[in-house]
Amino acid sequence: MKITGILALLLLGAQMAFAQNGEINGRVLDATTGEAVIGAYVFLEVDSTNIIYRGVTDYDGYYVIKPVASGTYDIRVSSVTFSQQLLRDISVSEGQIRKLDFNLSVNELKGVIIESYVGMVETGYTGTISIITHKEIENSATSTPINFISVITPGSFQEDEDSPIQFRGAREDATLYIVDGVKIMGEPVIIRNSVQDMLVYTGGIPARYGDATGGIIVITTKSYNKIR
To answer: Nearest-CA neighbor of 175 among 128, 211, 212?
Structure first.
């Protein structure tokens, strides 16, 4: 029993070491004057019905929401004297720090709704990274999520669908897999519809993942996202 307890603690510790929730921060300003909006509420919602996280702006208009589990959210900003603003389908991934600023209009009867938000450059990461969402995976024609990585990720190579993925000319065994915060030896077997998102590091690998000579594939499953 003691040995079993020790193993469970070691496994939990390894999972906590690798699991990194995301963060959303930014600033809320008056669209007319450019001054900070104090005391504005920033809500993270699922389908604009269920509030999951909440933040409040400070005296300089800044807000921080963390930790944020990997997933896709609607973000709504609300203040007493300003119109509401809503951004839909904002994705947050493991370890990402996402910056979102808002400019609110005064005395507007209707809020501004942006149906989708697509950033040209992903911020919050120090390395060379590709973010693959569950929607992209589910709409792909590949047999497994791992195969889809070699199709869209620059610097990756896969000889055929049964071969391991290689990055930047590294050996086949130089790719590190992390599933729900746990390091996996060898390529894991992952069901396509079970994946929430995948982060693929091909350069500038963060220190928390250790020394990897190839690439790192960080996989978050939908079930893991729900229980955190």
So the answer is: 212
What amino acid is encoded at 206 in this protein? P
Cβ contacts of residue 128 below 8 Å, gap of 6+?
A: 155, 201, 202, 203, 204
Amino acid at 166: Q
Q: Which residues of the chain have pLDDT under 70?
A: 1-20, 47-49, 107-127, 210-212, 224-228
Q: Among the three residues 54, 87, 114, which one is the final residue of a domain in this structure?
A: 114
- The pairing of strands 156-157 and 166-167 is antiparallel
**DSSP H helical segments within 79-219, as ranges?**
134-138, 145-152
Say if CB 18 and CB 182 are below 8 A apart: yes
Cis preceding-peptide flag for 154 (omega within 30 of 0): no
Query: Tell me, what CATH number does 76's domain have?
Result: 2.60.40.1120
* 83-126 confidence digits (pLDDT tens): 889 998 888 888 888 899 999 998 655 556 665 555 444 555 55
Interatomic CA distance for residues 222 and 195, integer angstroms: 6
Q: Do 110 and 197 sit in the same domain of this protein?
A: no
Q: Which residue has the tokens 């807000």?
A: 63
Measure the CA angle with vertex 168, ends 138 and 166; round to 5°.
50
Q: How many domains does the chain have?
A: 2
State the pTM of this model: 0.52
Q: Which two tokens stand for residue 105?
A: 């209009």
Owner of token pair 């079970």: 194
